[in-house]
Amino acid sequence: MPKFSTKWNIEWNEPITLPALTQRMHEGGLGREDLVAVLTERDKELVDELCGPKYKPKKRSRYKRAGTKRRTLGTRLGLVEIRVHRVWDSKLKKTFYPIWRDIKIRSRKIYQDDVSALSEHSVVRMTYRNTREELSRVINGFPSHHTINRRVIEDGNELVKEIHERELTATTHQPDGTKLHSKRGGHHDVNIVLATSANRSPRLRSLTVGCKWKDHLPFFNNTKFQDEKGGLCPPTAVCDMEPGLAELMIQDGGYWQPCLVHVVRYTGFSLWRDDIDMDERKGIVQTVSRILSHLKNSLNCHLPKDEIDAVEHRIKQTVKEFKRLATRLNNDGMVKTAKFIRNISNSVTTFASLALQGISVPWHNNLLERLMGEVSKRCKHKWMTWTTHGGQALLALLVTRTIEPDTYYDFFNRKLFDHLKDLPNLGISITRLGTDF
Predict the structure, then answer these.
(1) Which of 143, 217, 257, 279 has its CA 20 to 30 A from that of 309?
(2) Taking the model in full, what pTM does it have?
(3) Measuring CA to CA, which residue among 65, 73, 74 is closest to residue 96?
(4) Where does residue 141 fall: left (phi above 0), alpha (psi -120 to 50 degrees), or beta otherwise?
(5) Using an 8 Å Cβ cutoff, are 205 and 399 in contact?
């Protein structure tokens, strides 16, 4: 069979990262052997430039050859081994590797950020062992699931730190919580808060595992509450009936909008606690649902027509109907349900009252419930147990990728490509010169 080889030329004008180089080579159809050739050739060029050719060294140069060292690198193109030159700097009295000044790598690590990023993208959908098993079929020399776990914890906690420290603009905070099985037995609390605004994509405000809700308070100071026109507005929390959560979210003054879906569900739960039979329970729940639907439909019908009086009338009627219902239930011995209905009679109309002021607030937290479904799908299996650091890191990656894909991929692009991320073709030119047969 005839032998053949492909000629190519790679140029870059400034120091680059190894992931940027492997990305461009992958896009150009080059492979692992090409990467070894590029690194070897570049290493020789840099050493010759500093020290002169091997058998004709530069005279009176401060740089002298100081041997070579074998280096193993795990990249998206596979596991490669190269021999790089060490140079002695007589002025600084130390040795260095010229190639690692020109091509930035993760020092003292075999597996570089490009292969780690690929594994982390897969981990948010698969288990650590499945990720190792599947990707090792297509990449020669893939890291172990223990190594992947360490990189996830490192990058996930770095990402969640950036999220907690960033400044956001929003209309509402939407908190919700769930639990994960702990390594030491019991459960970890998982608390997530989204910052949302009308006609804007939701943003992740904060995420903790194994912490209390009060630990989120410092992060709330980084949210500026504005309406759709850019004017300042009071903070608003949209959440379920978790005890004390609404008060914590708006402790500096603001409004609480209970999720109306949860209001209907919790009414049924309260009736069950009052030991009411199923048929009667259904009738009362339908009454609550009808009152709330009337309010929502009235707002959607009259507000676009600027019929403010009609909306205000419906808000007052809703409060009155809830209080009348609470009185009737209390007289019939349904004390727990009556107390619940009376306590939320004013809060359920918050979204309508704020709409009259030009502030759009959702009447449900369905978005957060769907997000919790993603958390459950990945992390809440019975056979899974988590540490606080591991759980928070993985959930930071999972939630950010689900809610804010742009933020997620920008984080990895900055990590992988550094200042080259915004340059066309990452600032690296690959030219095919032809094929020799």
Answers:
(1) 257
(2) 0.90
(3) 65
(4) left
(5) no
